[in-house]
Write a structure and sequence with these properties.
Length: about 170
């Protein structure tokens, strides 16, 4: 039984019902429906902190999904899991793959910026000032792209850019 049929909370059940209705109304292939089911199950597992299960579902969704836009969200969510697990290099790979398919994904730009900023902070702790400047400059560039796509979001990033003279 797919995970999406086991959901206990109201929001997940509502989302599942609406998604199922949309899948019946909108003309989609069996492959597209299967890909979406795996994606939805991946999101559900991810929300519950079941990252291994979520990754399995996302990888299966990637195998089935052919639409680049839809694939971008799957890749983005895989990146989120790797970020949560502290696997920043792997996360960056997935965020960049997501952005290749969908360059209008501000949350991916934001997450790349957050990782760059984190690496800048690490460089400061190691007293590597030149590397920290480079990481912070990269973070600034990615945050600028995120803000350009979603001007009302990322207020903390906007403040950081102003305070550090990068905007």
């Amino acid at each position: 039984m797919p995970r999406s049929q086991k959901n206990d909370n109201f929001i997940d059940k509502t989302f599942t019902i609406i998604a199922d209705i949309l899948l019946r109304i909108v003309p989609t292939s069996q492959r597209e429906r299967e890909a979406f089911t795996y994606y939805r199950d991946g999101m559900s597992a991810q929300a519950e902190g079941e990252y291994a299960e979520a990754l399995q579902n996302y990888y299966e969704a990637m195998r089935l999904e052919i639409d680049p836009y839809d694939r971008s969200y799957i890749l983005y969510n895989i990146g989120l899991i790797h970020t949560s697990n502290g696997e920043h290099a792997k996360a960056l790979e997935y965020y960049f793959q997501a952005l290749e398919r969908n360059p209008s994904l501000p949350q991916a730009f934001n997450n790349v910026a957050v990782i760059c900023h984190y690496r800048g902070e690490q460089a400061i702790q190691q007293q590597d000032i030149e590397s920290s400047k480079a990481w912070f400059n990269q973070a600034a560039e990615y945050w600028k792209q995120a803000i350009q796509l979603a001007p009302g979001n990322y207020i903390e990033a906007q403040n950081w850019l102003k305070i550090t003279g990068r905007i």
